[in-house]
Write a structure and sequence with these properties.
Shape: elongated
Number of helices: 11
CATH class of the largest domain: Alpha Beta
CATH superfamily of the largest domain: Tetrapyrrole methylase, N-terminal domain
Number of domains: 3
Structural class: alpha/beta
Order of helices and strands: EHEHEHEHEHEHEHEEHEHHH
CATH topology of the largest domain: Cobalt-precorrin-4 Transmethylase, domain 1
Mean pLDDT: 92
Number of strands: 10
Distance between the termini: 70 Å
Strand content: 15-25%
CATH architecture of the largest domain: 3-Layer(aba) Sandwich
């Protein structure tokens, strides 16, 4: 019989945030596959666990997953952990889980902390529906495209981001989604845990010239009720107002942006598409 792959959640900061079940399994399995063996060693040392470790991280995942699968098929149990939180959630693990399931290996989740859930629980934005978007693209054009795709969604948006790219993400959100409410959750469960709440523009101003450190989770308010206009409805209003000829086109853009509660840049982009469709110069 094949072994079992245990997907084990581990602390995201405070080492006390681990379940009794997780500790029992980490002690009993023959091997622990860890994203960073040095980081996991700190946890194991804290609880007197001597189970052997093997590395399983982003850059060796393709080569290491088949090796771990072979051990599972030979009957060994394997515990999969990441640096912090739940494996396979913006961390290595999906490939091994998929291969194990395809070969009939039992995959068992062992619940533990997750930064996105902790941020949502204490953030103060709606939690009945949310969309987890992980780390947004680094390239500005691809990041903007992603934001445009979720612009009309009424649900709370959840991002992970590095401190170095947080400013660029906030600026993109302001340009594409408008000045929505946001929550910045930083260093969750650690000594310097911090929540910052406000609008995007307020957060941009508060962070200007300051170095942000640590793990960052960003919550963004969904599109408010009654303002989730499609590109088509924006173009229809533009077309109607331009045809009336009562205002210069720049004034029309201001009026449309205000009426639809969208960034003026979005109204301008809709205007350019409308011109392209009509073939006007």
């Amino acid at each position: 019989m094949p072994g079992t792959l245990y997907v084990v959640g581990t602390p995201i900061g405070n080492l006390e945030d681990i379940t009794l079940r997780a500790l029992r399994l980490l002690k009993s399995v023959p091997v622990i596959a860890a994203e960073d063996t040095r980081q996991t060693k700190k946890l194991l040392t804290r609880y007197g666990i001597a189970t052997p470790l093997t590395s399983y991280y982003e850059h060796n995942e393709l080569a290491k997953a088949p090796v771990l699968l072979a051990r599972l098929l030979e009957g060994e149990d394997v515990a999969l952990v990441c640096d912090a939180g739940t494996p396979a959630i913006s961390d290595p693990g999906y490939l091994l889980v998929r291969l194990a399931l395809e070969r009939g290996v039992s995959v068992v989740p062992v619940p533990g902390p997750s930064a996105l859930i902790m941020a949502l629980a204490a953030g103060g934005l709606p939690t009945d529906h949310f969309v987890f978007l992980g780390f947004p693209p680094r390239q500005a054009s691809r990041r903007r495209k992603l934001l445009e795709q979720v612009q009309a969604l009424p649900w709370t948006l959840v991002f992970y981001e590095s401190p170095q790219r947080l400013g660029a993400l906030l600026e993109a959100i302001l340009a594409v989604l408008g000045d929505r409410r946001v929550v910045l959750a930083r260093e969750l469960t650690k000594a310097f845990e911090e929540f910052r709440r406000g609008t995007v523009s307020e957060l941009v101003a508060a962070l200007r010239g300051k170095a942000v450190r640590g793990e960052v989770t960003l919550l963004v308010e969904g599109a408010p009720e009654g303002t989730r206009e499609t590109e088509q409805t924006v173009k229809e209003l533009l077309q109607e107002m331009l045809k009336a000829g009562e205002l210069p086109w720049k004034e029309v853009l201001k009026k449309v942006a205000a009426a639809k509660r969208i960034p003026r840049k979005s109204a301008y982009e809709a205007y350019l598409k409308l011109k392209g469709e009509s073939g006007s110069a």
